[in-house]
């Protein structure tokens, strides 16, 4: 048998890319590849790229510059290193990548990576291979399942893509172009994936999609199911103790999703609901198709059924034409909602998007100043939210042993990292995969520190090996 070839994947961008990188490993494992943590001994390096902002996109080229040197060094010791660019930059720039960086052997878009084995073979034979069409077949039908030991090694929390692409066309955003039209996977395929993950130790599932709550996959009853209905079904999968979903659009929040938050204890009361701006004028220019008041009403619907619920969001500052008054409306909205955390970005014009054609660019210094002010407000809200946990007993799903001896690390319902020392007689490994009450004593940066509030019930057994 040929010795295994070594594969190194570097992923940028969103959760969809994290998921895709794992699925690329699943595609290449049967081809005799094993993962390596270092670029230097890799036979194949894949950059799984993000195109969302200019900075993210340009990173690829500096990385390719470094890879050229690594490849020359490998060549000197008689080893051939192949280099592939996958993800959203691959989709958006295609041949341009090869023109700027001839070192690249394969360019493959996010809907085509199930073809990686053929593309690598074609690059071997012909020197290079590119595929950035949206293929007629659906990649999910061709992706091999991860092996049980792979699932265990990936830990107790897993992403499952249920929906891909976006039909919303916000004026600033490349996703509809890089990921293509919105498509939902069938319910049965998702249940099968989740059951397989749960059978191999996974306890927490995050359903992901660029627009996950637009989910409308075919159900076993021949009807389109909503995300709420899907969540309800997945809550019944044995072993699954926590469910999450990301990223949602305010306009696609429907009654089923609200009902799911009311009815399902496994559905975590923490929702990422990007709003982008608090100004109706800017929201309209962004083609968001909702106002700030619409957004507040959506938040109120969640809060009415689930008082424990907390929110995070995304914001863009300095969208073309944004005035001080518009920006003040964003600060006002943040103050009204009160977030557990949020991401904020300076507007970055993206080629091919309508906003890139808009005049009235906000000066860089103004953008910097607005970003700083918004981030200060969000940081203050986040620390207040985290501080509020001190003195309380909260449920923590334990994920892995910590860096310090005897330490155990998990997350609260709100994804706050929580650290405990279970004490002598309790092996941290045996507690991984369990949800246990923790009394929070203090806060260290973004992490909560505490103690197990009660010994685990007698019947508790290790649910998962982390493979670590
Ligand atoms: N589908 C999600 C997230 C899309 S990308 C949604 O609808 O919200 C993640 C975030 O990147 C966006 O929410 C937005 O805040 C930011 N973003 C997207 N395009 C951008 C651009 N051109 N400049 C700056 N930030 C951008
Ligand atoms: Fe981009 Fe808007 Fe679609 Fe989100 S909803 S992915 S921001 S176009
Ligand atoms: Fe980036 Fe593509 Fe995700 S552009 S944010 S990797 S969908």
Provide the CATH top-level class of the largest domain.
Alpha Beta
Helix content: 25-40%
Give the overall form: globular
CATH topology of the largest domain: pyruvate-formate lyase- activating enzyme
| Rg measurement, Å | 23 Å
Number of helices: 15
Query: Which cofactors or ions or other ligands sit in this model?
Result: S-adenosyl-L-homocysteine, iron/sulfur cluster, FE3-S4 cluster
Strand order of the largest sheet: 2-1-3-4-5-6
Q: Identify low-pLDDT runs.
A: 456-468
Q: What is the rounded distance between the termini? A: 27 Å
Helix and strand content put the structural class at alpha/beta
Report the strand count. 19
CATH architecture of the largest domain: Alpha-Beta Horseshoe
> Could you say how many structural domains there are in total?
3
Q: Mind describing the biggest β-sheet?
A: 6 strands, parallel
Report the mean per-residue pLDDT as an integer: 94
Classified in CATH, the superfamily of the largest domain is tm_1862 like domain
Pick out its properties.
alpha/beta, Rossmann fold, pyruvate-formate lyase- activating enzyme, OB fold (Dihydrolipoamide Acetyltransferase, E2P), 3 domains, 19 strands, 35% helix, binds S-adenosyl-L-homocysteine, binds FE3-S4 cluster, iron-sulfur, metal ion binding, tRNA processing, transferase, 4 iron, 4 sulfur cluster binding
